[in-house]
Amino acid sequence: DEVPVGALLSDVVSRCDATAKKKGVELVADTFPDCFINGHDVWISQLFFNLIDNAIKFTPAGGRVSVSVDLDAAQAHFKIRDSGVGISADHLPHVFERFYRVDASREHYRGTGLGLSICKSIVDAHHGLIDVSSVVGEGTTFVVSLPLNASEDTPTEGAGEQLAGEPSESVAS
Ligand code: ATP
Ligand code: MG
Questions:
Q1: Can you tell me the distance from the alpha carbon of 12 to that of 43, in angstroms, rounded to the nearest whole number?
Q2: Would strands 64-71 and 26-29 be described as parallel, antiparallel, or unpaired?
Q3: CB-based contacts of 74: which residues, under 8 Å, 6+ apart?
Q4: Which of 41, 56, 124, 171 has the highest local Cβ count within 10 Å?
Q5: DSSP SS3 for 125
Q6: Gap from CA of 54 to ligand 1 centroid (Å)
């Protein structure tokens, strides 16, 4: 199905608003552009929910979580960025593994360690990419890239090249 990701992401952000407020974390979001991807709305919602939920959970009071979207010709890039505790380089490659939790011995953060492995499965199922970068004590950024739905009025490759390049007067007639 065609999923209106902009609208859906706004919906997830407003669902997370109360949690953020209660914790004293500022949750800021763009006005998301209208864009569509091919997939399942429930899964896409789950994907964003898990990432925003983590961002709020691992950010202390007074911190900030921001959600933004960048579009290019073929993909939407969703960025979930927090000013939280961060993830060290030795843990970072493992966070998408099932049941993996940094510092699982501490009771401070509750969780099963499944959220991000589910995110990875959802992104894979939608032919996308998920990436993470982090600095301990400064924060974490997750970027999800998903292919946009090509609509009928999408220029063909040739037309795209012409638009981006020289005017077409040079074409021999
Ligand atoms: P669940 O999502 O199942 O409730 P969880 O949040 O612990 O549990 P994941 O969402 O899979 O599990 O995340 C795995 C681990 O990665 C977390 O336990 C945490 O240590 C680390 N992590 C994930 N997101 C962040 C983040 N935004 N900032 C810091 N650490 C994070
Ligand atoms: Mg989680």
A1: 12
A2: parallel
A3: 147, 148
A4: 56
A5: helix
A6: 6
